[in-house]
Amino acid sequence: MTTTDELYELRSAETWRTPWDAYRRLRDESPAHRVAHPVHGDFYVLSRFEDVFNAARDTATFSSAKGLTPDADGAAMFSDDARPIVMMDPPEHTDMRRLVSKPMTPRRVATIEERVRGFVDERLDRIAAQGECDIVEELFKPLPSFVVAHYLGVPAADRERFDRWTNAIVAATASAEFATAADAFTELFAYGAALIERRTREPGDDLVSGLVEVGPEVATPGWIIGFVFTMVTGGNDTTTGLLGGAAELLTARRDQRRLLLDDPSLVRRSVDEFLRLTSPVQNLARTTTRPVEIHGTVVPADSKVMLLYGSANRDEREYGDDAAELDVTRDLDRILSLGYGAHHCLGAAAARLQTAVALERLLDRFPDFAVDADAGRFAPGAFVRRYETLPFTTTS
Q1: Could you tell me if 360 and 116 are in contact, meaning their C-beta atoms sit under 8 angstroms apart?
Q2: How many other CB atoms are found less than 10 A from the CB of residue 392?
């Protein structure tokens, strides 16, 4: 159910298609906007870059401990020993993040580039044979699943089952229809427990092995399984959304595509511009720990505040009059697509690498590719904006 609020809508599926004009109105007319939602209750929406940026960094005032949805306590479904890292505040968050951050640094992530390129090329070979396809199904969804499985240490023989569970859980999480993936949840949690046992006996160079190594006093089995769940839900549909949005932008802006074709070295630099404009995670909530005044509006303590990243990333006050336009040569100091401060996305380097390799190989193999955005379908879910299907042809 969506709110009938004139300025703000909690979006899902097709209502994600064109939120940009509504975001502009929020920024201009009501930058600290109060919403009375028929299901989720009252919450506030911040839409300007500086306000969202400041709130994202101020974890003492804008807490994640009560969940990232506008519901009163979105973390209630998790037991204390399985609460996801994204629903922790410093210093607890800092301590737990330290346990899983080493394999996710840009230097370490760079070591998987050849494997990512091999996966992408194999998928593009299949697409070349078809000439047209659903690019989400063929590449943009399987690629992040492949990378997440790698980091969790899922053996190659188990990847097919892991992909099936991932697809079901991501879809159920997006729609909040968790019963539709009950079997997948049960099977994945059982698999997670078995994976912990396996990595206890046979440690590897993966995140689960690293967490097992520190011992159950620090990382309980329940917390490790919760981390597996976080990786599945947070590392898949976001990168899928980024890739689909980038393909749409490059189809619409042939002039910008030409710049990348003429100078392929620009592709990696351009990834942050695609992140800025697509903002796969469009909004997440925090809970205030004290009263705070923003643009003359007093937000009481214990209020839910939605940080509207998708709007902030297009704020003319931060990016200039052409903030809504793709510019693959734009110099960017700050974007909010991957969070900021303590909650900066753990998988940021992996997401950037996947996107860079996928775009490089797509442009090299199919320089005239096109996607049909009008025929594409958006996935349900109030937080991640991504194409669920996106028709693709190798030549336009």
Answers
A1: no
A2: 27
